[in-house]
Amino acid sequence: MASRVPTPTTAVRIPISKPLVGELEHERIGRVLDSGWLTQGEETFEFERRVAEYCGARHGVAMNSATTALHVALELIGVGPGDEVIVPSYSHIATANAVAYTGAEPVFADIRARTYNLDETRLEEALSERTRAIVVVHQVGLPADLQAIAAFAGEHGLRVVEDAACALGSTYDGRRIGGHGNLAVLSFHPRKVITTGEGGMVLTDDPELAESARSLASHGEAVIDVHRHNALRPTTEEFARVGFNYRMTNLQGALGVGQMSRLEEILAARRELGRRYSEAFGRLSGVEVPLEPPGYEPNYQSYMLNVTAAGATPRDRVMLGLRERGIATRPGVTAIHHQPPYRRPAERERLQETDKAVEQALILPLYPQMTHAEQDEVIEAFTELVAEP
Description:
- With 389 residues, this protein is an alpha/beta fold.
- It has 2 domains: 23-262, 3-Layer(aba) Sandwich (Aspartate Aminotransferase, domain 2), CATH 3.40.640; 264-387, Aspartate Aminotransferase, domain 1, CATH 3.90.1150.
- The protein is built from 12 helices and 13 strands.
- The protein has helices at 23-35, 42-55, 66-76, 94-101, 146-156, 207-216, 225-229, 250-260, 263-281, 315-324, 352-360, 372-387; strands spanning 59-63, 84-88, 105-109, 131-137, 159-163, 171-172, 175-176, 183-187, 200-204, 287-288, 296-297, 303-307, 361-364.
- The protein has a 7-stranded mixed beta sheet with strand order 1-9-8-5-4-2-3, with helices on both faces.
- Helix 2 (42-55) packs parallel to helix 8 and helix 3 packs across helix 4.
- The model is unreliable at 1-5 (pLDDT under 50).
């Protein structure tokens, strides 16, 4: 019989994350409710405009999740049955699922230690004649090395799609993620930097791809609902392609517009708290704080560090100790190749850094309204637990 982890007896006082919302979001949602137009509409379009402009992309197309947005992005570049797409295993399972939705096969490549992002020197191990694209994940808000990955992709004739679910506001080489010319996908889940409850967005500089993305997200419509209803002359429905029902509602768009108004405040708080953690933990034996390489500016969507096996209490015991003190944690990120739909024993030999992260990585509480007193409590408890023999 499998062993069971003891159930903590203390209620959570310091959560892993908490969205920051206020009166502005309430007001905008109230106006949408009063308008009677609750599905995709003007608030959604305003949200798209604000996000795209902020990121440095020409077009944004909002959808009901980042997973569906990633599916659409892969459809836009022609990924389909018989193709392979290189992805990191160290990511939410949605990264691989979006590939599978197209009929293609995700093939896993390893990550770099402490950045948790694709290691461009290991991409060739996952390459085959069937490889069509690379999905680059900017894990927990730290950008991947887009220049190196783009060079590899160019050499082999591959397309690059950025799974930037966690990376709104992060910068690489002086430009914000989403503004590097690739198809990029953002998430607005409650644990992300800003939230629409659930939601995602495709960013692109190509107007034709943006138009196709909007059609795919709305049943393949040639003219989307709100534009057809507002037309001066009656028009009938016309469907240009087989599409999906992936639309973001006007309620979600209103929430997103309000969130964009406080984005800089959120980012400043997250970065200050993330760097404060690293300053506190940087000299601890048995702990590896996250890297922040020159030219990269993360948004600290999550604060993830490694509790190494040598010289420290194993990660799971630290997690349980924190939970007993009312402090929530998470065991890093999913390794997709450990999950039943994607278990392939032959691939595990080349995913050693991924497997190491599975055993050692730990996410600590971080949210923009977190007080220094709350963070000090986490720092003190973590430091004591790591020092225990």
